[in-house]
Amino acid sequence: MEENLSCCCHDSQANFLGRAMQHLGLDEAQRKLLLQSFREVTVQIPLKLRKGEVETLHTFTGYRVQHNHARGPFKGGLRFHPDVQLDEVRALAQLMTWKTALVNIPFGGAKGGITVDPAELAEDELEILTRRFTQKLAPILGEHEDIPAPDVNTNPQVMAWIFDEYSKSHGYTPAVVTGKPVELGGSEGRLEATGFGVAFIAHRACNDLSIPLKQAHIAIQGFGNVGSFTALRLSEMGARIVAISDIFGGIYCKDGVDIQAAMRHVRENGRLEGLKGTKEISNNELLTLPCDVLIPAAMEGVINCDNANAIRARLIIEAANMPITHMADDKLCARGVVIVPDILANVGGVTVSYFEWVQNIQRFPWDKEKVFKLMETYLSRAYEDVRGLSRRKQVDLRTSAYELAVQRTMQAVTLRGF
Ligand code: NAD
């Protein structure tokens, strides 16, 4: 069967979910209830853009999809990217419901974004765009309603603008958004949390497969927030990160890339290309390198029918959301490749977002040590829950993760009675 990558996200998720729902014996009405979004909002955001002396009017489209809030307020990131579209946001919102349920924090799932390439905007234009988007979404946001966070191409500064804009009409409300700068009530450790969490889960999975981390060769696609901190933590743990990449391409060093130097290089040059002592490779070459562990940490659908058979890693940790299509997943599982699914692998970020929200509500900041210690407790529990079910039922980690998440959500929906 042909694979249509433009709709791979929602197709793949529907497929993974379908498997879990079948295992749980959910009927048609229950399935429909869990699959539908609670609310989907599309907004138009007009903005005057400067190109030299010339000013032109552009209208950007923004989205917020609230999937399910049976277990707590809607929670999920905002993405600024030219490929943002409703179908993708819908699938990512659902994914957040399963993540928050799996790691057992009192939130539901949402996602949002603007179809824009922020690299083409000046800083003040990006600020105005973010503030206008916040004004339009304000009626459905709130510290007990819906709490956005950073995702692709959004960062603590963007979260600070959202917090400020929302607070103008609602009073001081730091808990309306997470991933803020620490100076404005952001949590210590939030910036690193997703990547450090990925590294923690990767370590656990390596232990289970008897891959000694200190001898492991690891390739990581994407060197943004998630990819860079995953690489940093794993290299601190003694692993050899043989390849990393960004949107412009990858770099390879058989003895291991110096990750601190790579982070400095990106800060100074805006890209990995040209890092001393490394050889340039393409993103596709990175994915198919001979290595023990492969960590896609960029965009969805990058491992698909075109390259699944060429993947040589024994273990894949899904740091990005939905990086493997369901058809590729079938091929990899059939070959015995172990895959730690996104809803487990990258939950460190939303877990520390939850801690940030708790600290904001209580007006009582924690230190980094407490944040990471508690994050590891939550991640460890989620990992053991998933692994335990997978061993008991002899199913792959993804199926057991979805099964647990769907079961917890369905239970909350049933108990609340809506
Ligand atoms: P980011 O914008 O900080 O970094 C993205 C990285 O991927 C950059 O290095 C970019 O150059 C690279 N990239 C973009 N398109 C690419 C392509 N087509 N091929 C190869 N590389 C490409 O984003 P991020 O926050 O690190 O998010 C990465 C992934 O992790 C996304 O799937 C996101 O949804 C997921 N995620 C992020 C968080 C978080 O806390 N930031 C939490 C959970 C999941």
Describe the structure.
With 418 residues, the chain is of the alpha/beta class. The protein contains 14 helices and twelve strands. The protein has helices spanning 8-24, 28-35, 86-102, 123-137, 156-170, 190-208, 225-236, 259-269, 283-287, 326-334, 342-345, 348-362, 368-393, 397-416, and strands at residues 39-51, 54-68, 74-81, 109-115, 146-150, 217-221, 240-246, 249-252, 279-281, 293-296, 315-317, 338-340. The strands form two sheets. A seven-stranded mixed sheet has the order 9-8-7-6-10-11-12, sandwiched between helices. Helix 7 (225-236) links the parallel strand 6 (217-221) and strand 7. Helix 3 (86-102) crosses helix 14 (397-416), helix 4 crosses helix 5 and helix 6 (190-208) crosses helix 7 (225-236). The longest helix has 26 residues, at 368-393. It binds nicotinamide-adenine-dinucleotide. The site of nicotinamide-adenine-dinucleotide has 24 residues, from helix 7 and strand 7.
Question: Any descriptors?
Answer:
418 residues, alpha/beta, 7-stranded mixed beta sheet, 5-stranded mixed beta sheet, 14 helices, globular, binds nicotinamide-adenine-dinucleotide
Q: What shape does the CA trace take?
A: globular
The whole-angstrom Rg is 21 Å
Termini separation (Å)? 39 Å
- Write out the strand line-up for the largest beta sheet, numbering strands in chain order: 9-8-7-6-10-11-12
Total number of strands: 12
What is the string of SSEs from the N terminus onward? HHEEEHEHEHHEHEEHEHEEHEHHHH
Number of helices: 14
Poorly predicted tracts of residues: none
Residue fraction in strands: 15-25%
Largest sheet: 7 strands, mixed
| Percentage of residues in helical conformation | 40-55%
What small molecules are bound in this structure? nicotinamide-adenine-dinucleotide
Structural class determined from secondary elements: alpha/beta
Mean pLDDT: 96
